[in-house]
Amino acid sequence: MADITIRQVRYFAVLSKVLQYQRAARQLGISQPSLSLQISALENAIGGRLVERKRNGLILTPVGRAVALQAEKVLREVDVLKDIAVPDQTDLGGTLRLGSSPTIGPYLLPRILRQLHLTYPDLKMVIRDGPPRELSEDLAAGQHDMVLTQLPLPEDDFRVVNLYREELHLAVPRDHPLAGRERVRPSDLAGEGVLTLRSAYAMHRQVAAMCQSVGANLREDFEGTSLDALRQMVSLGMGVTLLPALYAQSEVRREDADVIIVRMQPVQYRLVGLAWRTTSGNPASFLKLVEFVRQVIAEEFSEVVTLVN
Predict the structure, then answer these.
(1) Of 196, 202, 203, which Cα lies nearest the Cα of 220?
(2) Disulfide check for 24: which of 15, 83, 116, 153 has CB 3.0–4.6 Å away?
(3) DSSP annotation of 56
(4) Which helix (H) or strand (E) holds 210?
(5) Which of 250, 289, 9, 31 is nearest to 163 (CA)?
């Protein structure tokens, strides 16, 4: 039995729609004899007639109808293979699975994705949120190609690239004694109830360490599931919290905001970066994406975060 080629399948898919050799050959940009030769080869491989000639054109045989349906499925799967093909070193394309922390992605990625879509329209990004602990586990398991997360990561089997350093600001209720201050020292939080995200987030460990060092009370009875939840709990007088600068710029800029943002002195900050498995090597497409992200951050967020190497 002869092999069936993708060319034969594609040619027959066109012929099965227009049901005229001349029109199909014109659409495919080939000669009619070449088309007839490929269809005959496909019929020989299938072992049966696919089309019957009639006075006003062609009709599909029962086998031809079945093959036409299957041809469409085959061509769709070929398109999927094209989507997952490895991009070359001069462009970004294919599909990239990116894991992203929900404390970072919603406030950073929209502008980056917009620029990526304009510059590299063939690149498809599949993005899934998750806390850093889950992101690193899924990255190690191959569920993600890269992750955007707060650093450091717990595992050593990742290639990590720093992106930027981001200040953490204090959020307090509007009637809190610290609300009128321009700057707050960590020691000013002694005795305060401090809210934070659950332990799967890197920020939890960071805030817990600060609380221990200055004598603040970490509110482990009320752990936030998101930055929005933390802000709302603060607005209800349940405690104070630290919020990343990008979030604060996006969500707490209004004069009638439900919480007051106060900067810390000395500055408290977190480090954000991209990571992928060391077994992936250093693909040119990954490195190119890193540089693209850095460029967008420099253009769009330079007043809020600081690029780092």
Answers:
(1) 196
(2) 15
(3) T
(4) helix 202-214
(5) 289
